[in-house]
Structures are given as structure tokens and as C-alpha cells.
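Dear colleagues,

As part of the handover before I leave the project, I'm documenting each prediction I ran so the next person doesn't have to rerun anything. This entry is a single chain, and its sequence is reproduced below.
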Amino acid sequence: MDPEDRDSQLSLTGSDRSKKRGKRKAKTSKPDEPPPFEESVRRLAQIVDELESGDLALEEAIGVFEEGVRLARTSQARLDKAEKRVEELLAVDEDGNPVVREIDLE
């Protein structure tokens, strides 16, 4: 380890260390699965930046755009599914009583 890196590690305060420890690693998806929602949103932001920069060749821009469309559609489907689950969880009957039923978590 470089001495400067070691010194910077030693100078971390307790709260800094807990912040570093508290970071979760992103779930990695399998090749045939779409990436996690948060990862998709980050990638979509990158795609927008890449396309807006104007630095991509036409074919490359089209490929990146296609990737963005796929990610956007998958992300929207996930949001729709999450919204439906929330609506089911908050459902009440005519008398104002919570509607209780099993929810498929997949």
C-alpha cells in the first residue's frame, strides 16, 4: 500500500469509516437478466449524456439509443409493477377496512 493511501486511511474519522463500511455493493445481474432498477437509471443518465455530447458516430449513437430504449421500457415495467403492489397494500374496502390478501412478491 502506498504510504499516502495508508495515511489517508488512518486519518479517517469514525463517521467517515462508518460511511465507507455502510456502502452496499450493487447487485450484479446475470447476463440474461435486466440490471437492477437503480443501475438501469444510472446507465440511462449516462446514455443521455453520451447522446447529448454529440461525440458518438451515427451507428454507435443508434446502438446506445437502442440500449436506452430497452432500459427505459424495462424500468417503466418495474415501476408499474411496484405501483400496483403499493396500491394493493394500501387498498381498503367500502367500509374503510384494509383489504388483506396474499401478494405475489415475484
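Helices lie at 3-10, 14-22, 37-53, 58-89. Residues 58-89 form the longest helix (32 residues).

All the best with the project,
I.
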